[in-house]
Amino acid sequence: QKEVEQNSGPLSVPEGAIASLNCTYSDRVSQSFFWYRQYSGKSPELIMSIYSNGDKEDGRFTAQLNKASQYVSLLIRDSQPSDSATYLCAVKYSGGGADGLTFGKGTHLIIQP
Amino acid sequence: GAGVSQTPSNKVTEKGKYVELRCDPISGHTALYWYRQSLGQGPEFLIYFQGTGAADDSGLPNDRFFAVRPEGSVSTLKIQRTERGDSAVYLCASSFGQGSYNEQFFGPGTRLTVL
Questions:
Q1: In this structure, is the dihedral angle defined by the CA atoms of residues A46, B19, A100 and B62, taken in order, positive or negative?
Q2: Phi and psi (nearest 5°) for B97?
């Protein structure tokens, strides 16, 4: 059973601080990892993708991947109220015809002005 | 350019009825995916098309669900004999190609309500 686990939150962070979102996955046979942002009533919007161990930075966002620990995280620097949303972690597993993404339930992030 | 589009945005139907949900992927994207999202949950994979063929339908919950993509572009998800448990947001996504490194982009979704 391939699973992706996220703390559902809510995670409350003051404006301007760093928000840290975490995700663990169950299967070592995984290749690609994605973070999506989903505003209430809207569809998921891709923020970051990461494929190799280490950090990947894009503006205020940094994705971190540790395959040995089966752990992926998203850091949001200088958090803004507009960052308040649900953040979905998704994993693309390799092989076995599993071509879709496996999503966690998402972490609800609240940025407090 | 235009993103993934889905119609209708909302669909209300009665238990036992048949519904069709349409997805128009990003131009040039050969891979197309259908997901279903229930309240408080992440999207759940249903089916994947590469071109015209369903390459992976392992996520379809039962034989009431069927999807087609006859010309390799627009796809239709078909649900027969709808049940109240089918109520959810149905999301379509597309990517440039197949494989693990292709990012998937979602459409706005169709909210299906079965009364």
A1: positive
A2: -150, -170
- Angstrom distances, CA of residue A33 to CA of A15, A53, A56, B17: 27, 11, 12, 38
Say how far apart CA B79 and CA B112 lie, in whole Å: 11
Residue A69, token pair as written in the block:
């620990």
| Interface residue of B100, B103, B111 to substitute, partner A, most A CBs within 10 Å | B100
Residues written for chain B: 115
The contacts of residue B19 (CB under 8 Å, 6+ apart) are B11, B13, B78, B79, B82, B112
List chain B pLDDT tens, one digit each, 115 residues: 689 999 999 999 999 999 999 999 999 999 999 999 999 999 999 999 998 888 889 899 999 999 999 999 999 999 999 999 999 999 999 998 777 678 999 999 999 999 9
CA distance B4 to chain A (A): 11
CB pair distance less than 8 Å for A45 and B59: no
Residue with token string 């972690």: A89
Tell me if residue A40 falls in helix, strand or coil: coil
Contacts of A57 (CB under 8 A, 6+ apart): none
pLDDT in tens, A55-102: 999 999 999 999 999 999 999 999 999 999 999 999 998 765 557 899
If you compute the radius of gyration of chain A from its CA atoms, what whole number of angstroms results? 14
Using alpha carbons, list the distances in angstroms from residue A90 to A49, A100, B32, B82, B101: 9, 10, 17, 28, 13
Smallest Cβ–Cβ distance between B56 and the set A4, A100, A106 belongs to A100
